[in-house]
Amino acid sequence: MSTHAHLDWLVDTGERLTSADGVEIEVWELQYGDDPAVLSAWAKHFREHYCDDEMLKKLVPGTGDTNGEYLIKKKFPDEKAAPGPSIRSGDFAEILVADYIEHKLGYWCPRQLRYDQKWNRNESTKGCDVVGFQFVNDDGVNPNDELFVFESKASMSGNKPINRLQDAVTDSGKDALREATTLNALKQRFYERGEEAPALKVQRFQNMADRPFKRVSGAAAVLNSSLYDGALLAQTTTADHFNAGNLKLIVIRGETLMKLVNALYARAANEA
Questions:
Q1: How far is 66 from 47, CA to CA, in rounded Å?
Q2: What is the dihedral of CA 198, 116, 250, 264, to 10 degrees?
């Protein structure tokens, strides 16, 4: 079973909205099912963002916890105590968007390094939400190589729709400042792990003046279907975004997403 089979449940609806300033907004839907094999593969993929299974074998001994207890108490955001639920929904949205740009759009997206170093499981990780890289050639620097920086926002509770896509666009505008520190942290983590080749891939994008590349920005809203309001989302404006000419907008909606999120965390712990 592929660890990415759950992406067959992420479906382009074909629906398109238009922002206040004429930018196309893609509408996708997470039509998840109840296939135990797919859910188990998804849970493993999800779990290993926080702690890969080989490392888990080293970290659990001495704690008195089972694998599942360790993950719930020390790695995963809390299911009920605030701000745990909002961190859960935010992390889920980021990981889903990372899956989308990696496996639907074909970018290299080394996001596992984002979650496994959290000092506080109930805090969001700093820096850019999702970073993807695409190379024209494997053996050189091409000005058409792409750096894709995506901001995601989630809304999975409440009764009133809010424009989380606008929130994502607004926060994406801050990525101009966060990009350099995010790339530096990612490069450093690779070197700390003794992985020079991916570190050099990141390094390729650290100096646009000397090594030109294409910078693409993205903003995503991940919403409960009950909170989806096309007219509200169409009010989104990108006019003040520093990279408005290369900004991709998407919305992902799905039924009872918080129920899915909590079930995925539970399965990830129980099957560890």
A1: 15
A2: 130
Q: Which two tokens stand for residue 166?
A: 């606008």
The two tokens of residue 125 are 């990780």
The torsion of the CA quartet 76, 109, 180, 174, rounded to 10 degrees, works out to -70
Type and span of the H or E element at 131: strand 130-134
Q: What is the pLDDT of residues 166-188, one digit of tens each?
A: 999 999 999 988 999 999 999 99
C-alpha to C-alpha distance for 17 and 27, rounded to whole angstroms:
8
Q: Are 129 and 151 in contact (CB under 8 A)?
A: yes
Q: Are strands 10-18 and 24-30 parallel, antiparallel or unpaired?
A: antiparallel
Nearest to 155 by CA among 80, 258, 18, 248: 258
Give tens-digit pLDDT for 198-221: 999 999 999 999 999 999 999 999
What's this model's pTM, rounded to 2 decimal places?
Answer: 0.96
* Distance in angstroms (rounded) separating the CA atoms of residues 155 and 93: 9
Rounded CA separation 95/129 (Å): 9
All residues at 6 or more sequence positions from 141 whose CB lies less than 8 Å from its CB, including other chains: 204, 211, 213
Which residues partner with 148 through β-bridges? Answer: 132, 216
- Residue 61: cis peptide before it, omega within 30 degrees of 0: no
